[in-house]
């Protein structure tokens, strides 16, 4: 009886851990905003690598067009392979590690899509991102497909949630906090971001100062770990006199303002140069049109009809031709891009360029 019980135990596959970089979350949210109107969710491919300890490091992603109904899912496999080839030209070390979808948890068609990615890579992970902010934050979950076995016989497969960790640096955390805020109307400018950061810093300094005062006045029990942390933080700051610190900040601010001014001048100069180039092209085309009209009127009727017929055939077939002019029994290559001048006794010869 004990042997029978041992054979009837359901066996699950081993668990793994997924570490997700914030670029992946930003790409997924951007693709969700740009999705077609009839699409309820977006799916795509996850790129990264598998670390020696079995951790899946997800560093990049791209969306894959698809259509989905209640009983079937159609993926654009050619687009998926073309995007994979393009990404690996830039980052050859990034390989397919799984796929993602927007929504809260696993949906009905996820098994079909996971089966496709299982043929692309062994043991892919399935990442879900709740872009609807069901719980007030973009919930991120990772799943793997594990086989349910009865003894040594495989019965079915199911999605099992695995730990997912979001890797954030200090700079990336600012953007992620803004992404979590559903009340943000626009991305703040550099000055607005600096202002909000300084306001948060002042608030934290006030909280720390209040905590220290409460400890000194014996209103709060002292915490040795907090005290050592505050001491290490204060001692790590460089000792700079107030005038020298103000000068340092002002010099840095002036350098940034100078860079903004130079970039603005460069952008204006490029705009003016583009407009002048457009005006010059229009002038050249107008002068060439006037020259062509003047030269065309001097030709005989038979030469006019022959030249007009060749031009119309060239335009109708969509081909690009270059004209050469025969003058005095010799051919001369044209020097401009406009229509070619012909004399009364001359003839036009059109050749493919």
Quickly list its features.
353 residues; alpha+beta; 9-stranded mixed sheet; 9 helices; 14 strands; 47% helix; disordered C terminus
Could you explain the architecture of this structure?
By secondary structure, the protein is of the alpha+beta class. The chain has nine helices and 14 strands. It has helices spanning 2-7, 22-33, 77-90, 110-120, 170-180, 190-216, 224-236, 242-297, 301-317; strands at 10-11, 18-20, 43-50, 56-63, 66-68, 73-75, 95-102, 125-129, 140-150, 153-162, 164-166, 321-327, 330-332, 348-352. A hairpin with a 4-residue loop joins strand 5 (66-68) and strand 6. The termini are far apart. The model is unreliable at 1-14 and 318-353 (pLDDT under 50).
Instruction: Name the beta content range.
Output: 15-25%
Distance between the termini: 88 Å
Provide the structure class: alpha+beta
> Share of helix among residues?
40-55%
Q: Could you tell me the radius of gyration in angstroms?
A: 34 Å
């Amino acid at each position: 009886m004990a042997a029978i019980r041992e054979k009837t135990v359901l066996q699950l596959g081993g668990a793994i851990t997924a570490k997700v970089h914030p670029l992946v979350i930003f790409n997924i949210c951007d693709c969700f905003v740009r999705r077609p109107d009839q699409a309820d969710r977006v799916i795509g491919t996850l790129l990264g690598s598998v670390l020696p300890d079995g951790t899946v490091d997800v560093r990049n992603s791209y969306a894959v067009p698809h259509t989905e109904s209640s009983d079937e899912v159609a993926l654009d496999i050619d687009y998926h392979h073309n995007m994979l080839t393009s990404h690996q030209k830039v980052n050859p070390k990034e390989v397919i590690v799984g796929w993602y979808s927007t929504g809260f948890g696993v949906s009905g068609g996820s098994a079909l899509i996971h089966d496709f990615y299982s043929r692309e890579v062994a043991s892919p992970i399935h990442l879900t991102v709740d872009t609807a902010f069901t719980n007030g934050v973009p919930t991120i979950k990772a799943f793997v497909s594990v086989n349910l076995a009865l003894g040594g016989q495989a019965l079915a497969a199911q999605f099992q949630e695995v730990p997912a960790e979001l890797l954030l640096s200090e700079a990336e955390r600012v953007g992620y906090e803004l992404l979590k805020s559903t009340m943000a109307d626009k991305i703040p400018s550099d000055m607005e971001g600096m202002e909000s950061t300084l306001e948060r810093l002042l608030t934290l300094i006030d909280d720390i100062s209040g905590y220290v005062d409460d400890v000194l006045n014996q209103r709060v029990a002292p915490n040795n770990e907090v005290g050592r942390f505050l001491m290490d933080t204060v001692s790590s700051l460089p000792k700079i006199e107030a005038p020298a610190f103000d000068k340092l900040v002002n010099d840095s601010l002036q350098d940034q303002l100078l860079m903004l001014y130079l970039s603005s001048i460069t952008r204006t100069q490029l705009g003016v140069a583009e407009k002048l180039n457009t005006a010059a092209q229009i002038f050249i085309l107008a002068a060439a049109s006037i020259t062509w009209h003047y030269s065309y009127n001097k030709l005989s009727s038979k030469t006019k009809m022959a030249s007009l017929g060749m031009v119309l055939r060239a335009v109708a077939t969509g081909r690009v031709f270059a004209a050469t002019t025969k003058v005095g029994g010799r051919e001369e290559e044209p020097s401009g891009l406009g229509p070619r001048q012909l004399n009364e006794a001359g003839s036009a010869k059109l050749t493919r360029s």
